[in-house]
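Recap quiz, item 2
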Amino acid sequence: MSGAEFDRHAAGYDGGLDHPIKRLLGNSADEFIAVKARWLLRHEPALRTTDAKGSGVRLLDYGCGAGDLMRVLTQLGARGSFTGCDVSGGMLAEVGKRWPRHLGPPPALARQDGARTPFADGRFDVATVSAVLHHVPVAERPAVYAELGRVLKPGGRLYVFEHNPRNRLVRHVIARTPIDENAILLDAREVQDGLLGSGRYELETDYLMFTPPGIAWLRFVDRALAWLPLGAQYVVAARKPA
Ligand SMILES: C[S@@+](CC[C@H](N)C(=O)[O-])C[C@H]1O[C@@H](n2cnc3c(N)ncnc32)[C@H](O)[C@@H]1O
């Protein structure tokens, strides 16, 4: 796994918004990221609290890219100690550039060596993996699942967000987006099976983005349809045994 492929896209990375259909559905990459961030804020209460020392939940964003998920989470009120890692040094270099000063210090960052991260076992309460796995070659995905299980503490929570290949519009857009030229999409079942192949997890899956992310008054529709495997995205939520 090399980060060179993503170094090329780092400076102008906008979440694939260069595709006209995606641009029709939302004005900015942040609107798409915010759907995931709002879901996390609803389902992971630890993101809304801080501990006695004021540091709060320890979250790792694996394959963090330019840090957009951690940034949007913070802008929407999430609190905690955030760390990002990625195989691409170019992407990691973008995190600080995009991080507004008024949000405080940017997240801690680390470069991955393939699937491997430099963190101690059980270091994180929560790990997020957003739009990463479809870039990881199929044979290397088990190593990613194993690494995520290693760095999560017992009772820790893992959230895997992915494009849903059951949605035809998603397949159409991905096939025509430059950053996705080597993407191999995977459905929620594949993520569930991959996780269960690497550890004992309690799993739940929600489907997201049935309606354009920029239209706030339609959000109730998305929440009502979260069970239907046709949304443009899905999230597999996994809890590691305590
Ligand atoms: C489409 S971007 C998503 C970035 C970010 N997670 C987000 O949601 O905005 C995919 C990211 O996955 C990273 N990536 C690709 N293969 C990876 C791997 N094997 N391990 C970790 N990150 C990887 C790339 O460097 C890139 O930053």
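The mean pLDDT is 92.
The CA atoms of residues 50 and 56 lie 4 Å apart.
End of item.
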